[in-house]
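Researcher: Watch the backbone:
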Amino acid sequence: MKGAKGWRTAWLAAFLLAAFAVVPAGIALSGRTDFHYTLTSVALLSVASAGVWLTFYIGRINIGQGAFALIGAYASAILVTKAGISFWLSLPLAGLFAAGVSVLIGLPILRLRGVYFAMITLVLTQVVTLAALALPITNGAKGVTQIPLPGGVTIAGLTLIPDFAALHNPRLAFYYVACALMVLTFAAMYRLVNSRLGQLCRSMQQNEELAASIGVNVAYIRLLVFAISSFLGGVGGAMFGAIAQSVYPSSFQVADSVNFMLNCFLGGLGYVFGPMLGTLVLYFGWDLLFELGRYQLLVYSGLLIVLMLVLPNGLLSLRLPGRQGAKR
């Protein structure tokens, strides 16, 4: 046990060193500052995918995370541009708003069987897109533009976060923020699955009727998990809106919701860090196949099918056997 804990600590230290020091230094030496945006996108997509993974953890298929990312992006943009609220305050508020919407949606549909829940979440992204086109507060197809870069945060004369607009390279600042958000998200996920709530979630994944028979409030846990999932989607969407300094009804589409789900499948549904690895592989895999032109989508889809057939438990199942993936 001590050895396993030591290895986990070593891997965590190596990851943090690579993410916050080695990778930025390598990008600076190469001069390819565009990689800041690329890796920032990977980090934020993995955060949203982590929420989808959590719904899988209770045995539910969530194909609607793009809807909550869009809700979070609009909520943050409106709070910043129309209410004058600091972006850093709008970030958790956007997540909470997305979670609140998910509760309203989840109250009736989470009582349905899993297949019906999956079918309803499939149309959520399109419904939110149509709502964004129709509502006056979202400015229709024109979207919300000219979103200011995040301002600085100063406490007692100490600058905790610099003003992004005053930075020579705000993309680097966004990269650090996205990495920090990703680390906090997966640390919280790891803690959750190893808590009592995580044990209850696992019991529901195996048999909801049996879990209910021993006193587990199945409906409450479903709703709580769905709210946490949507919160992560809303936060990720809000960050994307701040980076692009704009948000449109087409900013997140049904394809994005499907990709969030694929990230979890590819990385491994039984592993907390599966969404992180799955996002990294899918994001760069799509770009690497760009040279194939019109055959890009065909090859990409074929490779995904082969990988899921060969590795049904995801890429992380290649690790040494005998370890419990969901707990690692």
